[in-house]
Amino acid sequence: MTSLEAAAARPSRAWWAAEAARMGWLEYRALRSPRSLLAATLPRGILQILFFTTLAGVLAGPGHREYAFAGSLVLALSGSNVNGVVAVPVLDKQYATFARVRTGRPSPTVTQLARALPYPVMGWLLLLLQASIAAPLLGLTGFALRLLPWAWVYAVIALTLSVLGLAGATMTVGKRADVLAPNVLSYLVMLCSGAIVPPGRLKWVDAIGQVLPARHGLDAIRAGLAGRPWLADLGLEILAGAGFTVIAALSILLQARRASRLGHDDFE
Prior knowledge:
It contains 14 helices and no strands. The chain has 268 residues and is an all-alpha fold. It is globular and about 60 Å long.
């Protein structure tokens, strides 16, 4: 076999990345069975949407319910994605499997990012189901149908929130704060995204919201619903997600190099 034939027979990087994503899906299914998704994750998201939308209607008036409904969908995503994706680095820590990750054919960064893919996909699909159940209960079916053409923007937000959670977990997995950090980030998204309370109340809240995912994606959705230009806001949402993807990738790279230098994967 010539060198060209050998190269052609060797799996490509895309193939290895797809295999990592497939293993991530199997890992996700092992952690979150259909029964647990239907019995825990699904109703929790529905209750979050009902709670925040109803609370906004009581405190700010019925006219604020549509605003809060659109934002509460992001809060439901934040709970399932920012906190859920923590499992990717934490399982490597618990079962001492990071050595296999960092010595595999694809880079550790590609492997970890590919394993995280089920979280935004499943989070988004669950969100569609949660919204379809919550909207009639709130009397907002008409608004939900108006929101439906913008469901793909919620898919973008699901992705950016997932890389936010992955960045938070990978940066802190060696400090025993890998669960705490994504929880803090999730609460910051709740506070600073403008999901329930419109921006412009507190400058420091707005400043944090500018760099976190979800804020600009929500702005794009609301601008689109109102017939205003929305593409720039969507671009800022993608930029925020790209920034946290870079942070997560650098964190994984530093962990891999540190483990290789010290000869262990203790994450300490």
